[in-house]
Amino acid sequence: MFAQLTHSQQATDLAYLYSSNHQPKLDILNSSSYKSPMAAKRLLEVESKFVFKPSSVAKFQANGGSPAFERLEALGTHKFTDTYFDHRDVLSNNGIWLRQRKNKQSTVLEAKVRISGNFARSTFDEITDRQAITNLIRPHFPHFNEGRENFGLQILAKFMTTRQDFRADGKFGIMLDYTDFGHSVGEVELMAEDEERAHREIDAFMAQYPWFFEKGKTEGKLAAYCRLREND
Q: Which residues contact 58 (CB under 8 A, 6 or more apart)?
């Protein structure tokens, strides 16, 4: 049913890496050592994942819960394919996820760098400038070759996502993601300079609408993909 990865051991390692009992090494990513390449205008992606029931989506779209959102805007449905690259988990072990995101309009290579948090509640710096990405990942590979396709790294995962985008209460991004391998997960997101304040705002926002943001164990798309590859 699922396409097998070329390096099955990497899939197993990544599934372990993303399990709830294991957290990657983030030594280079604390706020005192990691410097955003756009530090002068440092907007970070602050997000919290959540589980949603398919049966509650129609109610959510109609803003029919109690209490209702002050404002709920539907921003459309989008499809994209993500391809993740690494070598022996070197990047992911250091809180870096290198991916290519492709949709009908564009293909973008980006690095997501974890600043803080865990897999359910986290802060990332997103880098799309190729030279900045090169500078970020070069120190991790002794024989780095920036001229090779995808820097010579291996494909760890590739899957398609259908995303429904919303904006709630004038500021909170809500994404409902459905993958082509049967996994779904939601995210609430803010772009902010002050990550601690943004997390507090997200927590308060989600607590205000428990009829949709139910508490429960969440699993990101890549984590679910690797777990399924391991069990396939």
A: none
Quickly list H helices, the chain. 8-17, 54-61, 130-137, 195-208, 221-231
Query: Any idea what DSSP says for residue 152?
Result: G
Question: For the segment 120-173, what is each residue's pLDDT rounded down to a tens digit?
Answer: 899 999 999 999 999 999 999 988 878 788 888 999 999 999 999 999 999 999
Report how far residue 93's alpha carbon sits from residue 90's, in angstroms, rounded to the nearest whole number: 5
For residues 153-164, one letter each, b for 16 or more C-beta atoms within 10 angstroms of the residue's C-beta and e for the rest, the string is: beebbbbebebb
**In angstroms, rounded to a whole number, what is the distance separating the alpha carbons of residues 204 and 44?**
19
Q: Judge contact between 99 and 110, C-beta under 8 A.
A: yes
pLDDT tens figures, 41-64: 579 999 999 999 888 999 999 999
DSSP three-state, residue 102: strand
Separation in Å, CA 10 to CA 21, 85, 132, 158: 18, 11, 26, 14
Tokens 């991916």 correspond to 99
Q: Which two tokens stand for residue 112?
A: 């997501």
Q: Which residue has the higher pLDDT, 191 or 12?
A: 191
- Comparing CA positions, the residue from 154, 145, 33, 4 lying closest to residue 89 is 154
Give yes or no for a contact between 175 and 77, defined as CB atoms under 8 angstroms apart. Answer: no
**pLDDT (0 to 100) of residue 35:** 54
C-alpha 8/C-alpha 18 separation (Å) is 15
Q: How far is CA 85 from the centre of its chain?
A: 14
